[in-house]
Amino acid sequence: MADFDVPVLKEYPVIPVIQPGSMAHLSPFKSKPDHNTGIGFPGELVDDWHDKAIAKIGDMVKNSRALQVFLDICVKCGACTDKCHYYLGTSDPKNMPVARQDLLRKVYRRHYTFAGKFFGALGIPGFVGAADLTKEVLDDWYTYFHQCSQCRRCSVFCPYGIDTAEISMAAREIMDTIGIGSKYNNEIIVKAHKIGNNLGLPEPALVNTMEGLEEDVKDETGIDVKFPVDVKGADVLLITPSADFFAEPHIDGLIGYAKVFHQAGISWTLSSYASEAANFSMFIGSGDNLKKQAMRIRDAAIDLGVKRIVAGECGHAWRVAYNFWNTLIGPFDFLDPNYPIPQHICELTHDLIARGALKIDKEANDHRIITFHDSCNVSRASRMGNIPGGQFSIPRDIIKSVANNFHDMAPETIHENTFCCGGGGGLLTDDLVELRVKGAMPRMEALKHVIDDHGVNYLTAICAICKSQFSKVLPYYDFPMDMIGSLHQLVSTAIQLGEKD
Amino acid sequence: MSSVTMLYAVLLYVAFAVLLIGVVRKIVIYARTPQPLKIPTTPAPVTKAGVAWRIAKEVTVFESLFKSSKWTWIFGWMFHLSLLLAFFRHLRYALSPESFIWPIINLELVQALGKYAGFAMVVGLLGLIGRRIFVDRVRYITSPSDHLMLLLIIGIATTGLLMTFVERIDVIMLKSFLLSLVYFDWNNIQAMPTDTILMIHLGLVITLMFIFPISKLLHAPGVFFSPTRNQVDNPREHRHIQGWTADDSATSKPV
Prior knowledge:
The complex is a heterodimer.
Chain A: H1 33-37, H2 49-63, H3 65-73, H4 85-90, H5 97-112, H6 114-121, H7 135-144, H8 153-157, H9 164-177, H10 183-195, H11 203-221, E1 236-239, H12 243-246, H13 250-264, E2 268-269, H14 287-304, E3 308-311, H15 315-329, E4 343-344, H16 345-354, E5 370-372, H17 376-381, H18 390-402, H19 433-439, H20 441-454, E6 458-461, H21 464-473, E7 484-486, H22 487-494
Parallel strand pairs in A: 1-2, 1-3, 3-4, 5-6, 6-7
Helix pairs in contact in A: 2-3, 2-9, 5-6, 5-9, 13-22, 14-15, 16-18, 18-22
Chain B: H1 3-32, H2 48-61, H3 63-68, H4 70-94, H5 101-105, H6 107-134, H7 136-140, H8 144-165, H9 171-182, H10 196-211, H11 219-222, H12 227-230
Helix pairs in contact in B: 1-10, 4-6, 6-8, 8-10
């Protein structure tokens, strides 16, 4: 079914021997001029791209301590070389975090360090790991900075915490600045700016879809569970990835949130203006667009007069919400300070379960043998609850509260060691299927073990990208594509709506 | 004053000035460069004390490196610990016997440990260089300068060991020379011993001091400024604004 070799899952993880250039052929479609101009960048590669790119690097290191420090201090110790799922799945050495960073670092060294300038002038910049920015280097940037899902696994293992995600975001920003963007990301950001969500779903369609869901749930349970849109004065504004409105298996998660709100008696609403939790501007490292996208949420919250903002299941969106919203669109003095701002839907559900506010029948999930995939941005770039690591315990606590059969995957593949699904960071596009399949290999290997040992038949995720990615790649590894599901689908199955009181 | 003494006196002053000014300049740059967004690698401490503990573990026992690669950790840690011990042992050349520091760091212990640390240092460095030669992934990311820096320090350690165990030099004379530099006693600079091996040892150290502020050796001060390690995980409780997130008129907005 594939025109490339799907990796063979092994009994034990094996670090591959490097195969230089093995993924050099694969890069995503480039964006069309109006996608670039729509988000404030030149439509096509500018004539003075070399000088502009060099200048941009200098500008960026002045404005980001992370970038300045990370470009300076890597000692090339190699600790990260076997940590990236894309390296493990493709054997291409430029997918080793340090080598990926070096694509940018060598140009920085050439132009912004004494050693690089000196040996560059002598004609041997490579002596100190520096290099000129050539068309070939630029092509490498486009290829390999779009083979990074910005999952931060390398940053866990780096002795200095160097985070390739920061480097790859910066590199994409530099490329956008000179007129090279990826179609998938830039097209989506344009839609989000114009319409308010990545799908380009306008208000009437959203309302229509939610009405359809109300009917479905009524048919199934006999209960009037509401899916409100643009209800002024609701307590909670739900900001969830737009995939939850349409895609399988995401939509069953949305039904789960609605049932939780319903049973807890919390009034809530979606916003047709801010109908997207995802913020792809993070993937392309664009602060302007990141803020512009996020600002819709603040505006919607004020406009609707809500007291709380709750974020649905989405990995990078939770990173943006948890870590960046207060900075970008705060302060939130108009919201109720008695609740976390923002609050993750898992925090909310966890809290309600702990207080006994939900009527749960765990046996309803007995046909499922469940494991949990920690999404990278939740695990390594955010938190839930009050203690470090709450992002690991809270989702698992919920699963164990609503189901009887739960088995974790191997410890070196979960929590902060989790392997990316292979489709994060703005790579969830069909032009990169080969990369996505190969990058999923480490996760698939860990999954295979719990399937073989425990008969696991349900892979839980709390990220829209993970869910779409797994639906796509599971069949390549001969696993059923429908074994991936939302955490709140499990809640939805177990919650007993009619029986409370 | 002999020309050798003169040459080394000048070089040591210049090299030390380059090292000091270069590193301080970089520290100032790191400290002043804004970090616009919160990016700690989580799970991260939720208090400043927790962050101090996290960084203390990174710089003393190389916690993250221990998680990633046991071989690199063993060799790297062996080298750095030996470097620290050797540094203490060398303090006697730069401090007068009356210095208040001696009672604190225990002269006898430092002398004894420092004497043999040189061997551990060489073993550690050979291990690190071996990884660069034999592990294909590490070989791929290695530049000539990466090898040369290791060789440079191996050279320093080896010449040091030779002076301690094989070809002893007049350390009293060396100490007089160095103390006269340390105390800026320029009218009365003492002669430096002219053993070849000492001249090589000091020449390599001077080279290292020149290289430090313009190379990856900046990881030493840099690690303290790494945002993924030194930020407190409290974005919901405390609004973090810095750089372009504090000043919306800024034109460049890198994430």
